[in-house]
Amino acid sequence: MKAIFFAIWPYVLPGIAFWCLWDAAKAHAEGRQEDAFMFLLQAIFFMLAEIARALRDVPTPGE
Description:
Layout: H1 2-8, H2 12-29, H3 33-56
Helix pairs in contact: 2-3
């Protein structure tokens, strides 16, 4: 179970971010600008979290 979790984890945050972008586009098309803006902010948050996770896993020189 643990192996499955770690195998799919790198795809979770980008998947949530894509879902938020999809909802933002849908809300914008329906004229709900406030909702679209909030979904866009959530997508940015999840992508920044994924970038931080990826950078944390980069080895530093000398390791």
